[in-house]
Amino acid sequence: HVQLVESGGASVETGGSLRLSCAASGYTYNRNCMAWFRQAPGKEREGVARIATGSGNTYYDDSVKGRFTISQDKAKSAVYLQMNNLQPEDTAMYYCAAGLWAGSTCIPTYWGQGTQVTVS
Questions:
Q1: What is the pLDDT of residue 31?
Q2: Rounded to an integer, what distance in angstroms lies between the CA atom of residue 14 and that of residue 11?
């Protein structure tokens, strides 16, 4: 069983920065990617960024390219999301996910509980 615990969410002003962290624990044999998703009130959950844990290849949604950076620390089984130049439309609950890589996408197998980001 894999457990994912996010942290780092907060309320920030427009143009500010945040760094989200996700710590993974448990047996991870069936996952080779990690990703960040977000869900705003009244909207569907959407993928934001993903990383293939073996190669380190990263992919981003167009809405965050150039502003967000996903990274990993394999020794700590952790993944991070550096978010710069935050905008009100980035306001959402952010979820960490671990899963299986398919093409250029990460299919979630496990989810964290989420961390709230509010930009105003």
A1: 81
A2: 10
Q: How far, in Å, CA of 40 to CA of 118, rounded?
A: 10
In the prediction, which pLDDT does 29 show? Answer: 61
> What is the distance in angstroms between the CA of the first residue and the CA of the last residue of the chain?
37
Q: Can you give the chain as a three-state secondary structure string?
A: CEEEEEECCCEECCCCCEEEEEEEEECCCCCCEEEEEEECCCCCCEEEEEEECCCCCEEECCCCCCCEEEEEEHHHCEEEEEECCCCHHHCEEEEEEEEEEECCEEEEEEECCCEEEEEC
For residue 14, is pLDDT > 90?
A: yes
